[in-house]
Amino acid sequence: MKFVYFGSSGFSRVVLEELFAQGYTPSLIVSQPDKPRSRGLKVLPLEVSMFAQEKHFLLLKPCSLHSEEFIQRIKKESAETFVVADYGKLLPPELLALSGKIPIALHPSLLPCYRGAAPVNWALIHGEKETGNTVFRVREKLDSGEILLQERVCIAETDNAISLHRKLARKGADLLIKALDQIKRNEYMLTAQNEAFASFAPKLSKKDGKISWDADASTIRNLIRGTLGWPSAYTDYKKITLKILETQIVETTVTQAPATIVRIDKNGIYVATAKNLICIQKVQPQGKKPMDAYAFVLGHNVTLGEQFT
RNA sequence: CGCGGGGUGGAGCAGACAGGUAGCUCGCAAGGCUCAUAACCUUGAGGUCAGUGGUUCAAAUCCACUCCCCGCAA
Fold first, then answer.
1. Beta carbon of A229 within 7 Å of strand B?
2. In degrees to the nearest 10, what's the CA dihedral of A107, A181, A2, A21?
3. ipTM of the complex
4. Is A161 helix (H, G, I), strand (E, B) or coil?
């Protein structure tokens, strides 16, 4: 079936790779324009664009989805459907109208929960035990269209934002394929979302990664899991900003003030929280590569009783 | 030319400003102590100090250039 793929991020790239691996190749890929990113003002293509270039797919990177030129180009494509996965912009009605059959999108949450830009991160931050994928009909309003297919996915205790994104992207591709086959045969069911249960998972910002040691250990650990990759959870030790990458909870009675280092051994740095200890196992100091927390201790004379800020 | 940190035995760091024997905390190896241990004690191996050129009697250290890694910002 001929379809146009809209996507831009790393998550979207994995989905696209899976579709490609299983023989579902879009006739055209639409990604976002290259943007200056990373240090040094370099203009780099986004993940989906890079994949498209590697595989020599037709690729468009329109600045505006409303432009006459772009609309005409899509019209000419006369695709049977559109597949959207983390494109990052809403598709305007005049564009959606160009999809032969219904346009569909993949969203890595159990809609109507966690609509928006960062559903996977927020599910982890909230300590959810379960999330999922939803394939829905693209409507003008964000993540609000009728549901075609939905699949539940367990969140493991060891999952983090990176592993869960990857897991959901792979499973999501399978779900999209199922939906594409249904659309092809005109054998799909649309179920309206229950607006009463809708919730929103907004884009994260750097501030969201700041650790409050006043919270309990599991809340802190969930933040660390949910923000891994970007923006990452961080705290300050003396003048150094530390990203906290891996932790473990140690259930015990805490007598020291939150943020106090109460124990150090080869497993890492044990820090007091409002409830239980959290053992920091892996960190990344600013300007450095990720390292074992104990390695950081060795080089920086970390001592008991010191506090993170 | 967006801002900034960094590259020193296997790991993390000090030494650099005020050039002059390669240092610290670990790890590793061998031995000892111990009921025992990730504890303690002895001893040991392991470095062209990212690279190239320059200054100098002498460069990890000063100067110039190059390569690589990372944080912020976007």
1. no
2. 70
3. 0.89
4. helix
- Phi, psi for residue A93 in degrees, rounded to 5: -55, -40
Tokens of A149: 């297919």
Tens digit of pLDDT for each residue in A145-168?
999 999 999 999 999 999 999 999
Tokens of A174: 């399978």
List C-alpha distances in Å: A298 to A51, A236, A240, A281, A290. 41, 17, 15, 13, 15
Output the pTM of the full model: 0.91
Q: Which nucleotide is nearest to A301 (CA to C1')?
A: B25
Answer whether any strand B atom is within 7 A of the Cβ of A210. no
A90-118: string of b/e by CB count within 10 Å (b at 16+)?
Answer: bbeeebbebbebbbbbbbbbbbbbbbebb
Residue closest to B11 C1′ by Cα: A295
Is A284 (CB) below 7 Å from strand B? yes
Q: Which residues pair with A85 in a beta bridge?
A: A7, A106
